[in-house]
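Researcher: First entry.
Model:
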Amino acid sequence: MLIGVSALMISIGTWAAESAPEGDSQAQGACELTDRKREMLSRINEARSQARQCGNQRFAAVEPLAWNCTLEAAAEAHSQDMAENDYFSHTGPEGVGIQQRVSNRGYVWRAVGENIAAGQASIAAVVSGWLESPGHCSNIMNEAFTEMGMAKADDPGSMYSPYWTQVLAQPR
């Protein structure tokens, strides 16, 4: 859906599984938090630290998220795919969605969600747009999520570059 600015697109998705795949959830690994990653995490955790209204749903403040390298890799791959193939969707051209993308990376999840955006020039603009959208805001404030990864990909030839993906999850 188009929100406010002509090049601003945002979409959401959230899934929970009672019977998510079994296995080792230690695929998160350790990775260096760059200044950009710290800003992404900080802005999201700042939002989670305050009670807020997301549409007609009220959320209490929730615990901060931890950065997860596997979720970041899934986010990066999806952002790059959208930019390179000039589309905007939770589902890739081959029909692969967030659940399978995250599972394919070896992350064994209990709950998984995704926020995507396109056209925003900064992390602040993306997070602000998500917080103004009830569904995206609900994903950010969802207490079931304990970890996140987020990424941006640019392709000057694509319609809405840059493309942003945030993956939120809770390991099994």
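Researcher: Second entry.
Model:
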Amino acid sequence: MYYHRYRYLLCFSILLAIVGCKETVQESTKQRSVYFWSTTFELDSTQLDFIHRNEVSRLYLRYFDVVVDEADRVMPNATVRFVSSQPKGIEVVPTVFIVNDCLLKDVSGLDTLLLKRILQMCETHDITGVREIQIDCDWTGRTRSTYFDMLSRLRAAAHDKGITLSATIRLHQLPQSPPPVDKGVLMMYNTGDVRDLNHNPILEMDAAGPYLKHLRRYRLPLSTAYPIFSWDLLFRGGRFVGIMHSDDEWPILPGDTIIHRDVDIETVLTAKAAVSAHQREANNEIILFDISKNNMSNIKDKRYEEIYNH
């Protein structure tokens, strides 16, 4: 009797150890990623130090936008200019932003054009090891069918090249069926109206929280992106004029008001905990948006290790 009990306890202890090892491995292999959202891809020493110090291994790089031009054609715009090369050991995920109005036009061949242009840019600029491409679009009920059809074709073509397809998922899209892609990235930012002087449009949990209940039943593997950016918003006569991306982007007139908006670490950690409460796996890959140069000044005094590890 004693021998059988001892053998049972020994086997149970070994099983617990194996499970513990698996959990440790799972924790240690969580993906640390960043977005780079600018028209010039140039990484300075501060950005490279941030990537290496925080053990970032994946970079979602905006390649270009797709817009409707003045001739009413769907065309690429604001193509990134490569100054820096692909950092050693960093996987690049080419990312394309599609303006929603494009989906009201004829986009029957857009999937072919997107994949061809992305692959050509990768070859031209020596971007190697591409295993995923991502599409970002704030689609609506009116454009949903066209967008999903385009994604289905793009996914099939990408799979033929050994590449998976992901898409961004905005909070207001969570109650709807997911797009036909391999993975989604939940955008935990841009939760409010930039015109509202009384609220922070980057991230407020009062606005974001009600949507998160849909995570439990969302039928698509998710990663989550959290904000590290800030905005300077220009108001004139109490009315919103625009986001000031540079000092000379908008003329500042007497009586104008500039409102600075950012997000503190505590708010981001609260958002992360709320996501985990509904779907823990969504935090297996955490993506910070974004490490463009305009945002690097926000990084120095903040505890970004807590976002990746907390």
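Model: Note on the second entry: The longest strand covers residues 58-68.
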